[in-house]
Amino acid sequence: MVTLGMVGAGQFAGQFAKLFNVHPDVDRVFVTDVLPDRAKELAEREHLAGTFDSFEAMLDSPEVDAVAIFTQRWTHGPLVVQALRAGKHTYSAVPMAITEEEITEIVAEVRRTGLSYMMGETSHYNPATVFARQQVARDAFGRVFYAEGDYVHDMDLGFYAAYQYSGGEDWKKTASYPPMLYPTHSIGGVLGAIPGHAVSVSCIGVTDDRGDGVFDKAVSQFGNDFSNATALFELNTGAVMRINEMRRVGYPSHLRESRFRYFGTEGSFEQLATISLWQDKQGVTDVSDRIHTRPSMAHDDPRLAHVAPELRDAFVSGYAEVHDTARLPKEFAGVPTGHEGSHHFLVDDFVRSVVDGTLAPVNAWVAARYTMPGIIAHRSAQQGGQRLPVPDLGDPPA
Q: pTM of this prediction?
Protein backbone atom coordinates (compact mmCIF):
# COMPACT_ATOMS: atom_id res chain seq x y z
CA MET A 1 0.00 0.00 0.00
CA VAL A 2 1.15 3.53 -0.84
CA THR A 3 0.84 6.62 1.33
CA LEU A 4 0.80 9.65 -0.95
CA GLY A 5 1.44 13.33 -0.35
CA MET A 6 -0.06 15.86 -2.76
CA VAL A 7 1.82 19.13 -3.29
CA GLY A 8 -0.50 21.94 -4.35
CA ALA A 9 -4.23 22.15 -3.70
CA GLY A 10 -5.38 24.15 -6.71
CA GLN A 11 -8.36 23.46 -8.95
CA PHE A 12 -6.89 20.49 -10.82
CA ALA A 13 -5.54 18.87 -7.67
CA GLY A 14 -9.04 18.11 -6.39
CA GLN A 15 -9.88 15.64 -9.13
CA PHE A 16 -6.64 13.74 -8.63
CA ALA A 17 -7.00 13.78 -4.85
CA LYS A 18 -10.33 12.01 -5.29
CA LEU A 19 -8.82 9.37 -7.60
CA PHE A 20 -5.74 8.70 -5.48
CA ASN A 21 -7.94 8.46 -2.41
CA VAL A 22 -10.17 5.72 -3.85
CA HIS A 23 -7.37 3.71 -5.50
CA PRO A 24 -7.23 0.27 -3.87
CA ASP A 25 -3.43 0.38 -3.54
CA VAL A 26 -3.33 3.81 -1.88
CA ASP A 27 -3.66 3.73 1.87
CA ARG A 28 -3.79 7.43 2.75
CA VAL A 29 -3.52 10.78 0.98
CA PHE A 30 -2.12 13.95 2.56
CA VAL A 31 -1.84 17.43 1.04
CA THR A 32 0.21 20.59 1.47
CA ASP A 33 -0.03 24.03 -0.13
CA VAL A 34 1.68 27.38 0.35
CA LEU A 35 -1.84 28.61 1.15
CA PRO A 36 -2.74 26.42 4.15
CA ASP A 37 -6.47 27.15 3.89
CA ARG A 38 -6.55 25.61 0.42
CA ALA A 39 -4.90 22.44 1.70
CA LYS A 40 -7.29 22.25 4.64
CA GLU A 41 -10.34 22.78 2.40
CA LEU A 42 -9.22 20.07 -0.06
CA ALA A 43 -8.50 17.61 2.76
CA GLU A 44 -11.93 18.18 4.26
CA ARG A 45 -13.80 18.06 0.96
CA GLU A 46 -12.17 14.85 -0.29
CA HIS A 47 -11.85 13.20 3.15
CA LEU A 48 -8.06 13.00 2.97
CA ALA A 49 -5.87 11.81 5.82
CA GLY A 50 -4.63 15.30 6.69
CA THR A 51 -2.30 18.15 5.77
CA PHE A 52 1.35 19.04 6.18
CA ASP A 53 2.55 22.55 7.04
CA SER A 54 5.11 22.53 4.23
CA PHE A 55 6.60 20.53 1.38
CA GLU A 56 9.72 20.00 3.48
CA ALA A 57 7.69 18.60 6.36
CA MET A 58 5.99 16.21 3.95
CA LEU A 59 9.34 15.02 2.59
CA ASP A 60 10.67 14.54 6.11
CA SER A 61 7.78 12.26 7.04
CA PRO A 62 8.60 8.53 7.01
CA GLU A 63 4.89 7.88 6.52
CA VAL A 64 4.88 9.32 2.98
CA ASP A 65 6.07 6.94 0.25
CA ALA A 66 5.31 9.07 -2.79
CA VAL A 67 4.43 12.64 -3.73
CA ALA A 68 2.30 14.07 -6.53
CA ILE A 69 3.20 17.61 -7.57
CA PHE A 70 0.45 19.96 -8.78
CA THR A 71 2.15 23.33 -8.38
CA GLN A 72 2.64 26.05 -10.99
CA ARG A 73 4.24 24.79 -14.17
CA TRP A 74 7.62 26.52 -13.88
CA THR A 75 8.21 25.11 -10.36
CA HIS A 76 8.10 21.40 -11.14
CA GLY A 77 11.74 20.67 -11.92
CA PRO A 78 13.34 21.71 -8.60
CA LEU A 79 10.50 20.21 -6.55
CA VAL A 80 10.82 16.86 -8.32
CA VAL A 81 14.57 16.74 -7.70
CA GLN A 82 14.02 17.61 -4.03
CA ALA A 83 11.43 14.84 -3.68
CA LEU A 84 13.58 12.20 -5.36
CA ARG A 85 16.54 13.10 -3.17
CA ALA A 86 14.29 12.68 -0.15
CA GLY A 87 13.57 9.12 -1.30
CA LYS A 88 10.01 9.69 -2.54
CA HIS A 89 8.47 8.23 -5.69
CA THR A 90 7.28 11.21 -7.68
CA TYR A 91 4.37 12.09 -9.95
CA SER A 92 4.56 15.49 -11.61
CA ALA A 93 2.00 17.49 -13.53
CA VAL A 94 3.25 18.80 -16.87
CA PRO A 95 5.69 20.03 -17.87
CA MET A 96 8.58 17.98 -16.53
CA ALA A 97 10.71 21.13 -16.13
CA ILE A 98 11.58 24.32 -18.03
CA THR A 99 15.36 24.01 -18.51
CA GLU A 100 17.72 21.41 -19.97
CA GLU A 101 19.60 21.30 -16.69
CA GLU A 102 16.48 20.49 -14.64
CA ILE A 103 15.47 17.68 -16.98
CA THR A 104 18.96 16.19 -16.98
CA GLU A 105 19.05 16.33 -13.19
CA ILE A 106 15.69 14.55 -12.84
CA VAL A 107 16.74 11.72 -15.15
CA ALA A 108 20.03 11.37 -13.28
CA GLU A 109 18.23 11.18 -9.91
CA VAL A 110 15.74 8.60 -11.16
CA ARG A 111 18.61 6.49 -12.49
CA ARG A 112 20.58 6.87 -9.25
CA THR A 113 17.74 6.15 -6.85
CA GLY A 114 15.68 3.64 -8.82
CA LEU A 115 12.55 5.46 -7.67
CA SER A 116 9.42 5.74 -9.79
CA TYR A 117 8.88 8.98 -11.68
CA MET A 118 5.95 9.76 -13.94
CA MET A 119 4.91 12.91 -15.76
CA GLY A 120 1.14 13.26 -15.98
CA GLU A 121 0.86 13.84 -19.72
CA THR A 122 -2.78 13.51 -20.74
CA SER A 123 -2.10 13.29 -24.48
CA HIS A 124 -0.36 9.94 -24.06
CA TYR A 125 -3.85 8.62 -23.24
CA ASN A 126 -5.74 10.83 -25.69
CA PRO A 127 -8.02 8.55 -27.76
CA ALA A 128 -6.44 9.82 -30.98
CA THR A 129 -2.99 8.91 -29.69
CA VAL A 130 -4.21 5.50 -28.52
CA PHE A 131 -5.83 4.85 -31.92
CA ALA A 132 -2.69 5.93 -33.80
CA ARG A 133 -0.52 3.78 -31.50
CA GLN A 134 -2.73 0.79 -32.33
CA GLN A 135 -2.45 1.51 -36.05
CA VAL A 136 1.34 1.75 -35.77
CA ALA A 137 1.39 -1.63 -34.01
CA ARG A 138 -0.63 -3.08 -36.91
CA ASP A 139 1.74 -1.43 -39.41
CA ALA A 140 -1.34 0.17 -40.98
CA PHE A 141 0.49 3.47 -41.57
CA GLY A 142 3.48 1.89 -43.26
CA ARG A 143 6.36 4.25 -42.58
CA VAL A 144 5.15 7.33 -40.70
CA PHE A 145 7.10 10.16 -42.29
CA TYR A 146 5.16 13.21 -41.04
CA ALA A 147 2.99 14.00 -38.02
CA GLU A 148 1.43 17.07 -36.42
CA GLY A 149 0.43 17.90 -32.87
CA ASP A 150 -1.49 21.06 -31.98
CA TYR A 151 -2.36 22.43 -28.56
CA VAL A 152 -5.01 24.97 -29.54
CA HIS A 153 -6.06 26.43 -26.19
CA ASP A 154 -7.12 30.05 -26.43
CA MET A 155 -6.43 32.33 -23.47
CA ASP A 156 -10.07 33.46 -23.48
CA LEU A 157 -11.26 29.88 -22.90
CA GLY A 158 -10.07 29.23 -19.38
CA PHE A 159 -6.49 30.39 -19.17
CA TYR A 160 -7.22 33.91 -17.92
CA ALA A 161 -9.23 32.42 -15.06
CA ALA A 162 -6.55 29.85 -14.27
CA TYR A 163 -3.73 32.37 -14.10
CA GLN A 164 -5.82 34.79 -12.04
CA TYR A 165 -6.63 32.00 -9.59
CA SER A 166 -3.01 30.93 -9.19
CA GLY A 167 -1.17 34.22 -9.66
CA GLY A 168 -3.00 36.71 -7.47
CA GLU A 169 -2.54 40.42 -8.14
CA ASP A 170 0.54 39.84 -10.30
CA TRP A 171 -1.06 37.16 -12.46
CA LYS A 172 -0.09 38.87 -15.74
CA LYS A 173 3.59 38.26 -14.98
CA THR A 174 3.09 34.52 -15.27
CA ALA A 175 0.21 34.47 -17.77
CA SER A 176 2.91 35.27 -20.34
CA TYR A 177 4.34 31.77 -19.88
CA PRO A 178 6.03 30.85 -23.21
CA PRO A 179 3.82 28.47 -25.22
CA MET A 180 6.72 26.20 -26.22
CA LEU A 181 7.64 25.65 -22.57
CA TYR A 182 4.29 23.85 -22.24
CA PRO A 183 4.72 21.51 -25.22
CA THR A 184 3.78 18.10 -23.90
CA HIS A 185 0.08 18.11 -24.81
CA SER A 186 1.08 18.39 -28.47
CA ILE A 187 4.42 16.53 -28.58
CA GLY A 188 3.12 13.76 -26.33
CA GLY A 189 0.32 12.95 -28.74
CA VAL A 190 2.78 12.52 -31.61
CA LEU A 191 5.70 10.77 -29.92
CA GLY A 192 3.28 8.78 -27.79
CA ALA A 193 2.07 7.10 -30.99
CA ILE A 194 4.93 6.91 -33.49
CA PRO A 195 8.57 5.78 -33.22
CA GLY A 196 11.37 8.27 -32.77
CA HIS A 197 12.47 11.40 -30.93
CA ALA A 198 13.40 14.94 -31.93
CA VAL A 199 16.99 15.69 -32.99
CA SER A 200 16.69 19.24 -34.36
CA VAL A 201 14.18 22.09 -34.54
CA SER A 202 13.41 25.41 -36.18
CA CYS A 203 10.66 27.46 -34.55
CA ILE A 204 8.89 30.74 -35.32
CA GLY A 205 7.15 32.66 -32.55
CA VAL A 206 4.24 35.01 -33.19
CA THR A 207 4.51 38.25 -31.21
CA ASP A 208 1.26 39.08 -29.43
CA ASP A 209 -0.66 42.24 -30.31
CA ARG A 210 -3.67 42.14 -27.94
CA GLY A 211 -2.15 44.88 -25.80
CA ASP A 212 -3.69 43.76 -22.50
CA GLY A 213 -0.44 43.30 -20.59
CA VAL A 214 -0.33 39.56 -21.17
CA PHE A 215 2.53 38.38 -23.43
CA ASP A 216 4.18 41.75 -22.84
CA LYS A 217 7.96 41.64 -22.34
CA ALA A 218 7.80 44.62 -20.01
CA VAL A 219 5.45 42.69 -17.69
CA SER A 220 6.44 39.07 -18.29
CA GLN A 221 8.36 37.14 -15.65
CA PHE A 222 9.79 35.15 -18.57
CA GLY A 223 10.61 38.06 -20.88
CA ASN A 224 8.16 36.56 -23.36
CA ASP A 225 5.89 38.19 -25.93
CA PHE A 226 5.06 35.10 -28.06
CA SER A 227 1.44 34.00 -27.74
CA ASN A 228 1.67 31.44 -30.56
CA ALA A 229 4.57 29.37 -31.87
CA THR A 230 5.11 26.81 -34.63
CA ALA A 231 8.04 24.40 -34.62
CA LEU A 232 9.32 21.98 -37.24
CA PHE A 233 11.30 19.05 -35.83
CA GLU A 234 13.48 16.44 -37.47
CA LEU A 235 13.16 13.01 -35.81
CA ASN A 236 15.94 10.46 -35.51
CA THR A 237 13.94 8.19 -37.85
CA GLY A 238 14.14 10.76 -40.64
CA ALA A 239 10.48 11.71 -40.15
CA VAL A 240 9.20 15.26 -39.65
CA MET A 241 7.07 16.50 -36.73
CA ARG A 242 5.30 19.84 -36.75
CA ILE A 243 4.11 21.23 -33.40
CA ASN A 244 1.77 24.19 -32.79
CA GLU A 245 1.36 25.83 -29.39
CA MET A 246 -1.40 28.44 -29.70
CA ARG A 247 -2.84 30.77 -27.04
CA ARG A 248 -4.60 33.23 -29.36
CA VAL A 249 -6.62 31.10 -31.75
CA GLY A 250 -10.14 31.00 -33.12
CA TYR A 251 -10.77 27.36 -32.27
CA PRO A 252 -13.26 25.65 -29.92
CA SER A 253 -10.69 24.40 -27.42
CA HIS A 254 -13.52 23.61 -25.02
CA LEU A 255 -14.49 20.89 -27.52
CA ARG A 256 -10.96 19.67 -28.30
CA GLU A 257 -7.82 21.36 -27.01
CA SER A 258 -5.32 18.96 -28.60
CA ARG A 259 -5.53 17.58 -32.15
CA PHE A 260 -3.28 15.32 -34.18
CA ARG A 261 -2.46 14.20 -37.74
CA TYR A 262 -0.20 11.34 -38.87
CA PHE A 263 0.82 10.54 -42.44
CA GLY A 264 2.40 7.25 -43.50
CA THR A 265 3.28 5.61 -46.78
CA GLU A 266 0.23 3.31 -46.55
CA GLY A 267 -2.29 5.19 -44.40
CA SER A 268 -3.06 8.43 -42.58
CA PHE A 269 -5.17 9.73 -39.73
CA GLU A 270 -6.56 13.23 -39.25
CA GLN A 271 -8.43 14.70 -36.31
CA LEU A 272 -10.57 17.85 -36.31
CA ALA A 273 -12.75 19.32 -33.56
CA THR A 274 -15.76 17.10 -34.27
CA ILE A 275 -14.59 14.43 -36.70
CA SER A 276 -11.71 11.94 -36.98
CA LEU A 277 -10.79 10.16 -40.23
CA TRP A 278 -8.69 7.15 -41.16
CA GLN A 279 -7.52 7.27 -44.79
CA ASP A 280 -5.62 4.90 -47.03
CA LYS A 281 -5.18 4.37 -50.76
CA GLN A 282 -8.62 2.82 -51.06
CA GLY A 283 -10.70 5.47 -49.32
CA VAL A 284 -11.76 7.26 -46.14
CA THR A 285 -13.29 5.82 -42.95
CA ASP A 286 -14.95 7.97 -40.32
CA VAL A 287 -13.60 6.67 -37.00
CA SER A 288 -15.11 9.42 -34.85
CA ASP A 289 -17.20 6.94 -32.85
CA ARG A 290 -14.04 5.12 -31.75
CA ILE A 291 -12.13 8.30 -30.89
CA HIS A 292 -14.59 10.69 -29.30
CA THR A 293 -15.30 10.51 -25.58
CA ARG A 294 -18.78 10.58 -24.09
CA PRO A 295 -19.54 13.16 -21.37
CA SER A 296 -19.42 11.54 -17.95
CA MET A 297 -21.06 14.40 -16.07
CA ALA A 298 -22.84 17.70 -16.61
CA HIS A 299 -21.24 21.12 -16.29
CA ASP A 300 -23.49 21.88 -13.33
CA ASP A 301 -22.69 18.61 -11.53
CA PRO A 302 -22.19 19.45 -7.83
CA ARG A 303 -18.91 17.54 -7.89
CA LEU A 304 -17.54 20.43 -9.99
CA ALA A 305 -18.59 23.12 -7.52
CA HIS A 306 -14.95 23.91 -6.64
CA VAL A 307 -13.88 24.28 -10.30
CA ALA A 308 -14.21 27.60 -12.15
CA PRO A 309 -16.84 27.38 -14.94
CA GLU A 310 -14.18 28.27 -17.52
CA LEU A 311 -12.21 25.15 -16.58
CA ARG A 312 -14.99 22.58 -16.30
CA ASP A 313 -14.63 21.23 -19.84
CA ALA A 314 -11.43 19.49 -18.74
CA PHE A 315 -13.42 17.35 -16.29
CA VAL A 316 -16.60 16.33 -18.08
CA SER A 317 -15.21 13.79 -20.57
CA GLY A 318 -15.64 10.07 -20.16
CA TYR A 319 -13.97 7.24 -22.04
CA ALA A 320 -13.63 6.52 -25.74
CA GLU A 321 -14.12 3.14 -27.40
CA VAL A 322 -10.36 2.71 -27.89
CA HIS A 323 -9.65 2.99 -24.16
CA ASP A 324 -8.87 -0.24 -22.32
CA THR A 325 -11.10 0.44 -19.32
CA ALA A 326 -11.05 -3.20 -18.18
CA ARG A 327 -7.55 -2.65 -16.74
CA LEU A 328 -8.72 0.09 -14.36
CA PRO A 329 -9.61 -0.45 -10.69
CA LYS A 330 -13.32 -1.06 -10.15
CA GLU A 331 -13.19 1.64 -7.48
CA PHE A 332 -12.88 4.24 -10.26
CA ALA A 333 -16.37 3.45 -11.58
CA GLY A 334 -18.51 6.55 -11.28
CA VAL A 335 -15.61 8.82 -10.31
CA PRO A 336 -15.28 11.69 -12.81
CA THR A 337 -12.37 11.57 -15.21
CA GLY A 338 -11.17 14.32 -17.53
CA HIS A 339 -8.96 15.42 -20.42
CA GLU A 340 -10.53 12.90 -22.80
CA GLY A 341 -10.60 10.08 -20.31
CA SER A 342 -6.96 10.30 -19.27
CA HIS A 343 -7.14 11.02 -15.52
CA HIS A 344 -8.01 7.48 -14.45
CA PHE A 345 -5.15 6.01 -16.48
CA LEU A 346 -2.65 8.58 -15.19
CA VAL A 347 -3.36 7.80 -11.55
CA ASP A 348 -3.46 4.03 -12.00
CA ASP A 349 -0.24 3.91 -14.02
CA PHE A 350 1.67 5.89 -11.40
CA VAL A 351 0.40 3.76 -8.54
CA ARG A 352 1.15 0.59 -10.49
CA SER A 353 4.73 1.77 -11.14
CA VAL A 354 5.27 2.36 -7.41
CA VAL A 355 3.65 -0.85 -6.21
CA ASP A 356 5.04 -3.13 -8.93
CA GLY A 357 8.44 -1.46 -9.32
CA THR A 358 7.92 -1.00 -13.06
CA LEU A 359 8.58 1.91 -15.40
CA ALA A 360 5.57 4.16 -15.88
CA PRO A 361 4.54 4.75 -19.52
CA VAL A 362 5.57 8.43 -19.30
CA ASN A 363 8.69 7.75 -17.25
CA ALA A 364 11.61 10.17 -16.87
CA TRP A 365 13.19 9.29 -20.23
CA VAL A 366 9.91 9.53 -22.13
CA ALA A 367 8.98 12.73 -20.28
CA ALA A 368 12.33 14.24 -21.32
CA ARG A 369 11.53 13.48 -24.96
CA TYR A 370 8.11 15.11 -24.58
CA THR A 371 9.50 18.22 -22.85
CA MET A 372 13.06 18.98 -23.98
CA PRO A 373 12.11 19.66 -27.63
CA GLY A 374 9.84 22.54 -26.58
CA ILE A 375 12.60 24.17 -24.53
CA ILE A 376 14.92 24.13 -27.55
CA ALA A 377 12.08 25.26 -29.84
CA HIS A 378 11.49 28.35 -27.70
CA ARG A 379 15.21 29.13 -27.87
CA SER A 380 15.05 28.78 -31.66
CA ALA A 381 12.12 31.21 -31.81
CA GLN A 382 14.07 33.70 -29.72
CA GLN A 383 16.86 33.40 -32.31
CA GLY A 384 14.59 34.08 -35.28
CA GLY A 385 13.97 30.45 -36.18
CA GLN A 386 17.57 29.24 -36.22
CA ARG A 387 17.77 25.45 -36.53
CA LEU A 388 19.13 24.00 -33.30
CA PRO A 389 20.03 20.47 -32.14
CA VAL A 390 17.73 18.85 -29.57
CA PRO A 391 19.62 16.93 -26.83
CA ASP A 392 18.40 13.42 -26.07
CA LEU A 393 18.95 11.55 -22.81
CA GLY A 394 18.47 8.11 -24.31
CA ASP A 395 16.05 5.23 -23.90
CA PRO A 396 14.73 4.08 -20.53
CA PRO A 397 16.69 1.24 -18.93
CA ALA A 398 15.38 -2.23 -19.64
A: 0.95
